[in-house]
Amino acid sequence: MDNCIFCKIVKGEIPSNKVCENEKFLAFHDINPQAPVHVLVIPKEHFKSFNELPAEVMAEMSNFIKDVAKKLSVYENGYRLITNIGNDGGQEVPHIHFHILGGTKLSWGKATADANPKDMF
Ligand code: AMP
Question: What is the pTM of this model?
Answer without folding.
Answer: 0.94
